[in-house]
């Protein structure tokens, strides 16, 4: 668990260029870490509460700061061990620029004993946000500086809170000597460019004007409808004007908000300058407030070229380009510097070191070349090496645990459905995930999208490193018969069956209605997965639901990786899926999932999963669901009762699912949809 450390005391508001250092008191001999207000798993910091997101604590909310503010934390360690994975680092550099030197883990250190103080000087810095609070005793609404902060218990960070001292109470008499607790005001403003700002309560209640009675009037927030923040009423205590927050809702309410966004990035404590986009009202806990953009790979055995690239990446991360440029022609000096950093180069030849140095000092691509590479890049490129490796079982016995991968070709059961051509048990695996940035209001579509849509992680928009995690676990890989898949896919597309045309039209409507204002205008068909992806995706969800009942892992702990694309000059066609479980804070898992790859168990599990997928408690409504105008949902015969999986399991947020691609099911129009596995009665 990684500690979360917000700014503390009276220094809650910092100058734009001042770095956040919530652990500064620890340098002065502080015995207990009182800056800590909570902890989070690396996976949640990666996918749920990363920089720019709002983390709701028991008594207030915080926002993890940008990477600039992580530097004072990292300076507490002389040596930072980076995560070396050239294939993933190349993708990060492609999107964020060649100045990115390394992938870094979160600032965390394991403890040898439960009562140890090891790692207490590390943690993720965060800012208190929102910084407007409402007193629960008297409804006073004001900025952070009008409230008192306490965080005094060394072992109870959840007790940290803000209070309104001398609260008069609603009846005019204070009942608590210590004051009344304060809670964050939940209304915020955001825009499609990723900016986020406090709601201008004073301007709102005075309808864009100043208060006629006071320059800085006191305000109150009252709830007209208990439990519904849209029913909140803002009142000025000085002039008596009131205005309900319900007026700010929807497209009509948006016209009453400021015409231009201020360009604020709270995680950076900075402003971009005036933004031309009109902001919209958003609630603090809204699901579209923050969407992370990440890329991940499964670590594979490296080729000789990749090993050289890995050496260059390690030298870059350890010494930086400038130091390598200074001593690059002195191999002995490089070795001495490496020994001082506990970097073992004893088995590396001088020629390999020289080649790594030359690679580091090679001129970077021009901006035009980088733009061309970004335009041509496809996330499928990360999956291709994994697919190709899994197609070469002759390499499996040569595996070494140094790369964290161990796979075993498993014998097929004689009665296993003939459409399943291969089964591979993934006994051990390591998955590396890196953060590229985040977006607001609209999720980053990772296929041919603009990198400019990403909200920057540093003030200068040029990060030299990004956070990353290493997950270890196990899994099962299933491969469908490629020729049969190609033939089945042709029956769907040549000519297109009506159901596929309905999905295609719904996808186009979805893109037109929900795609971000800042997104690239592309043809919808370039972002619509092929029918084989729908097939594999639906099968994956059916298996996840079934495996969760026998593997010892909850369904939310299982995740999918779909290898489903048609052939092209750059890559061969693929049709396979990997169901795995991984964890960032353990050395692996317990073998309950990979045990299901045994022939007898897998055969029974597949039959049970397909039979369960053939029916749904919402049938016949679910089985016959097909989108038609103006509907724009991206699934067919699939719902929460039969096919949907948790957000942690599905790589496409429960889109592109239809049980009719899996099995022969009835349709609303009576059309024949060829299910890949045929009739459930034939299983």
TrEMBL record:
<dbReference type="InterPro" id="IPR018973">
    <property type="entry name" value="MZB"/>
</dbReference>
<feature type="domain" description="MrfA-like Zn-binding">
    <location>
        <begin position="539"/>
        <end position="642"/>
    </location>
</feature>
<protein>
    <submittedName>
        <fullName>Uncharacterized protein DUF1998</fullName>
    </submittedName>
</protein>
<dbReference type="Pfam" id="PF09369">
    <property type="entry name" value="MZB"/>
</dbReference>
<dbReference type="InterPro" id="IPR047721">
    <property type="entry name" value="DrmB"/>
</dbReference>
